[in-house]
Amino acid sequence: MNVRQSLPSLPNGRTLLYGALVLNTELLLVLLHPGIAGLTAQGWLHVALALVWINVGAWAVLRTDPAPASPDQRRTAFVVAAGYFAVLLYVGGLVTLGTTFASADLPATGARIAWLIPGWGPAVQYGGELVTVSLQPYKLVGYFALAYLVYATVLDAAGAAVSGVLGLLSCVSCTWPVLTTVATSVLGGSSALAAAVQNWPQEISTVVFVVTVGLLYWRPFGR
Question: How are beta strands 110-114 and 95-97 bridged, if at all?
Answer without folding.
Answer: unpaired
